[in-house]
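Researcher: Re-running this chain for the archive, since the previous output was lost when a drive failed. Same request as before.
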Amino acid sequence: MVLLQEELIKRNELDEVSKITKHLINQKNEQELRNNFDPDNYIKEELEAGESIENIKFKLKTMGIDMFDIIKKEQSQENIILNYIESKKLEGESKETIDNDLKENFNVDSNYLNEIKNKLREKGKKNTTIGIVLLVVSILINIFLLTKGRISIPAILLFGLGIWKLVQGEHQLRKN
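Model: Regenerated C-alpha cells:
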C-alpha cells in the first residue's frame, strides 16, 4: 500500500492517496473494535434501545461476529467449569476450596458460579419433568394397547427415551 501511495503522489493524485489512507485507518480502527468488542454489552444496549433480535443479529453479522460462536463459547466454558466442580466434589474437596480454585484457575466469581448452577438446576428440572411425562404417556399407551392384545414399538421407545431424560435430569440436579 505504501508503494501505491508513493506512486500516486508522484502522479499528483492526492485525492486517491487520501482515500487509501482513510481506508487503512478505518481498517485499523475496525480491527481494534473487534478485539475490544464485548457482544454481551452490545446486545444489551441494542435491546434496551428497542432493536429487534433479527436486526441485532444482522448488525453483528456485518461486523463479522457470529452469535452462535459466542453462545457455543459460553456453553463450553460453563460445561468445563461444571465438570471441574463435579470432579473436585468426587475427590472430596470442600465448597470453599472449590470456590477458591475456580477464582484462581477460571477467574470466576461466586455470582457467575451461582448463575451457572441455577441454569443447570433448571435444565435438570426440565429434563426430569420431561422424562416423567414421557414415562407416564408411554405406560398409558402400552396399557391401552395391551388391553387390545397389541404391543407398540414406538411406545416402548418412548418409554426408553423417558428413562433416559429422567436419568439425565437427575444427574444434572445431583451436580449441584
